[in-house]
Design goal:
The complex is a heterodimer of chains A (219) and B (323). By secondary structure, chain A is α+β, with helices and mostly antiparallel strands. Chain A is 34% helix and 21% strand. Chain A has seven helices and nine strands. In chain A, the strands form three sheets. Chain A has a four-stranded antiparallel beta sheet. In chain A, helix 4 (96-106) links the parallel strand 3 (90-91) and strand 4. In chain A, helix 4 crosses helix 5 (126-137). Chain B is of the alpha/beta class. Chain B has a single domain, classed as Histone deacetylase domain (Arginase, Chain A, 3-Layer(aba) Sandwich). Helix content of chain B is 37%, strand content 14%. Chain B has an eight-stranded parallel beta sheet with strand order 2-1-3-8-7-4-5-6, sandwiched between helices. In chain B, strand 4, helix 6 and strand 5 (184-191) form a beta-alpha-beta unit. In chain B, helix 4 runs parallel beside helix 5 and helix 8 (270-287) runs parallel beside helix 9. The longest helix of chain B has 20 residues, at 95-114. Chain B starts with 6 loop residues before the first strand and ends in a 6-residue tail after the last helix. Classes of the chains: A alpha+beta (219), B alpha/beta (323). The A-B interface holds A 138-146, 169, 171, 194-200, 202-203, 214-217 and B 24-26, 86-88, 131, 138-140, 169, 172, 193-200, 202, 221-223, 262-265, 300.
Chain lengths: 219, 323
């Protein structure tokens, strides 16, 4: 559940005095959208994005001669001129949930991961977060099926469901109790079972008094 | 007057010897027995030619499966193991030999089609196959019967093969076998993988590398019924098939999308399978000189299975007067 388990490391970084044309090439060659800017001790000092690069260059509406002159000027400017120096970071012990909250609150697409000395140890993007949750929730894992169960109002439904599945030798990998979009929505319990024999799963749960939610889409 | 083309049914009583342990295991020998009983009492019966499946050369199974897997499966069966790779895949001493015979049936059918001795072939076989992968048994499947048949048709007869699969579950084994191959086009209509085993078959999966565009997945939500299937057939599948222009069609014919079959959340009627038969009848005329090879996959509600197979074959073999 820690970002360090899913971050990209070692990260590619640049220093503040790197010229923009070289930073532009690094971003393009690696298909990055974000690049941490660090000092000589690898301490984070800024972030530059592909958008920062695009915004730095002049409009193509300019006359050719003017455009060429401006491009040369920008190419040879230092990245410190265009980077953001207020950087949202994740820490070594930050969790995926921390990352989710920050991505939502700060509206950024990636964050450097830093240690106690603010040196950059990795970079974690929204895409990394999606991949992490994908692994955790088993999306696209072969051999699984999702079963949704309505809580029966009695105590400890998750314990009882786990018990039923284990007693019936039904392999499962995830058991989640979740509310709907609003707090007023009823809960549903989702279990990802690793079996084709869904008939046996339904039979075992229904015999124990649970009702299956067949998850038909609302029309 | 009701009239049908001849239907060649490839079957063997040996298929009943694959013992899945009884109890709540849905893939039971009764599946084939109810189909046999239904067809023998059907108006189709006078038009049916029965052929016994016969084993084919092992090399054709090796076009789809690793030899090490064959040895592992055989050893597990002969050693008296109760399952292989997962408790779903129950086996008995006979299972390896039975699965080899099941995998041979499609090839037997292709030879009949190509020699002109048959036009409409249906393989009434078990265990099913479309989940089986190169070296993995999965979802009651051990050898990928439909993929083995498609490879044979492609390599032996140089055919441009369409495999269409409407079993309620995505045929992960067929897809993984063809997704980098430009010579076989795989179309699958199945319950959405978010909800349904095996959790693969997203619409975004369209093939890779040289096989890009050779996979068409149509996932349907739980509760999807006849209208949804007919809509995708008309709007998505028919144009894709026309563009691909196959000259051989293999149907991975699963019937577990039926509304009575609780192995999926789909809600098809028996009549839908009749309509699917008619669709394939028309496509066969259009692309393959009227020839098709259908191979049984899933279908676990015994009454619904028998009725659906009959309805499907009736649609598939109907002459123009009957359609």
């Amino acid at each position: 559940m820690y970002v360090t388990n899913y971050m990209t490391t070692p990260p590619v970084t640049v220093m503040p005095d790197e010229i923009i044309v070289k930073v532009k090439k690094i971003i393009a060659d690696n298909h990055f959208r974000h690049l941490p800017v660090v000092d000589e001790k690898n301490v984070i000092v800024g972030m530059v994005t592909d958008r920062d690069i695009r915004s730095a260059y002049p409009s193509t509406v300019l006359l050719d001669e003017m455009y060429a002159t401006e491009v040369v000027k920008i190419d040879n400017s230092q990245v410190r001129e265009i980077m953001s120096d207020i950087v949202v970071t994740l820490k070594k012990f930050s969790t995926l949930d921390d990352a989710l909250i920050l991505f939502d609150a700060k509206k950024v697409g990636a964050m450097p991961v830093v240690d106690n000395h603010n040196t950059v140890i990795g970079i974690f993007s929204v895409r990394d977060l999606l991949q992490a949750y994908r692994r955790i929730f088993g999306l696209g894992e072969k051999g699984g099926a999702l079963v949704a169960v309505k809580p029966d109002g009695k105590k400890r439904p998750l314990t009882r469901i786990a018990h039923i599945l284990e007693e019936n030798d039904i392999h499962f990998s995830r058991l989640v109790r979740a509310k709907g979009r609003d707090d007023s929505d009823t809960e549903t319990i989702y279990v990802r079972v690793n079996t084709m024999n869904i008939h046996a799963v339904h039979a075992a749960l229904e015999e124990a008094g649970f009702a299956i939610d067949f998850l038909k889409p609302q029309s | 007057m009701t009239d049908f083309r001849n239907i060649t049914v490839i079957d063997h009583l040996r298929f009943d010897d694959h013992d899945t342990g009884g109890g709540l295991h849905p893939e039971s020998p009764d599946r084939l027995r109810v189909i046999r009983d239904r067809l023998s009492a059907s108006i189709l019966n006078p038009f049916i030619t029965h052929i016994e499946a016969s084993p084919v050369a092992r090399e054709w199974l090796l076009t789809v499966h690793d030899e090490a897997y064959l040895y592992r499966f055989e050893e597990a069966a002969l050693a008296g193991r109760l399952d292989i790779d997962h408790p779903d895949n129950q086996i008995c001493y006979e299972s390896f030999e039975v699965a080899m015979l099941s995998a041979s049936a499609g090839i037997n059918g292709i030879d009949l089609l190509e020699s002109g001795k048959a036009q409409t072939v249906y393989c009434n076989i078990r265990p099913p196959g479309h989940h089986a992968e190169r070296r993995l048994a999965l979802g009651f499947c051990f050898f990928n019967n439909a993929l083995i048949a498609a490879r044979y048709w492609q390599r032996k007869y140089n055919r441009r093969v369409l495999v269409i699969d409407w079993d309620a579950h995505h045929g992960n084994g067929i897809q993984s076998g063809v997704e980098s191959d430009p010579g076989i086009f795989y179309v699958s209509i199945h319950e959405h993988p978010t909800f349904s085993f095996p959790g693969t078959g997203y619409a975004e999966e369209t093939g890779i590398a040289d096989g890009k565009g050779m996979v068409l997945n149509i996932p349907l939500p739980p509760g999807a019924s006849d209208a949804a299937v007919l809509s995708v057939l008309n709007d998505s599948i028919a144009p894709a098939v026309k563009k691909y222009s196959p000259d051989a069609i293999v149907i991975a014919a699963g019937f577990d999308g039926h509304q009575l079959d609780d192995m999926s959340g789909l809600a098809y009627s028996t009549n839908l399978y009749a309509k699917l038969g008619v669709y394939l009848n028309v496509w066969a005329e259009q692309y393959c000189n009227g020839k098709t090879l259908s191979i049984l996959e899933g279908g676990y509600h015994l009454e619904a299975l028998a009725a659906s197979v009959e309805a499907y074959l009736a649609g598939l073999a109907a002459t123009k007067d009957t359609q």
